[in-house]
Here is the input.
Amino acid sequence: MAESKKRKREKEAQDGDFVEPKPPPPQTQGKGDVPGAVSEVLPTFPFSAFRVQKVLRESAREKILFLHGKVNEDSGDEKDAIVILEKTPLQADRVSDLLSKKSELKLQIRNDIYSTYTLYPPPELSEIKTTIVYPATEKHIKKYQSQDVYLIQETGEDYRSITLPFLQSQSFSIQWVYNILEKKAEADRIVYENTDPISGFVLIPDFKWDQKQVDDLYLIAICHHRGLKSLRDLTDKQLPLLRNIFQEGQEAILKRYSLRGNQLRIYFHYQPSYYHLHVHFTALGFDASGTAVERAHLLSDVIANLELDPMYYQKRTLTYALRADEPLLKKFLDAGKC
Ligand code: DD3
Here is the structure.
């Protein structure tokens, strides 16, 4: 079994089309789009100007580091920034380069038939994925800070009396979502689009995925309809939208990445990290963050639940975890609900 998978990989590596993203389908290339035009309006900074204030979170297992730092602007102002550094997965189709004389091998330990080394790969094989949030708000900084977490059991009534009023009092900016839907950013990265304003969506690789290997495939389907915040807003009225995302999303991923529907985990987050309805598509073999039982809701289950009861998600108690410092947790505490 493992052997045949390996052979398949080797073949794919030779064919060389395994990781090369195919050009975007023509219908997604709107005329006059300037990809990245919006982000260019916002300030950027030279990396050397970033002064680390704090390591917000580090994980040896995930090989990721979240940093909070300050950046001095020309105006003399000092602004917060977040820098996320992450080692990327090894690419099976690049092993020949990795083990060639382009790399340097330093012996660490020798003992009997066992030996360990440190391999120093050439720069193109030692990439570190870097994500910058700048300027960052206090909310961004808190989001990445490790914290104790507590479970909440949110009834339908709790949602209406506590969670919804809280969400409405907050100013979450989802400009980046609108930029994608309006082709003002990332337009050239769209994998698939159904343009229907009610039951359509855009399928696009998530920021978290570098698209170098399908092992950690991660795409998001963002619905065109505005005003659907989360799972809680879904009724049988959204079944056509959800079925489109399920069917057309799988077809598009099969076509582009050769992964079949039964190799994908397709799910919502509740609570989501942004309140514009979206669905996550990840490779089944990849332990993407946010797939814990208290957060992930399979799209296929959501569809089945809505088929049973159109008001399922207005009635059902939903369990999720909140970090100690989250204002929503305080609302539940104040209401004597946890
Ligand atoms: C975000 C949730 C949001 C930090 C980070 C990510 N996929 C995005 C902007 C553009 C995107 C995403 C917020 C923000 Cl690292 C703060 O995610 C995005 N574009 N998840 C894509 N394709």
Remarks:
- The CA atoms of residues 166 and 328 lie 7 Å apart.
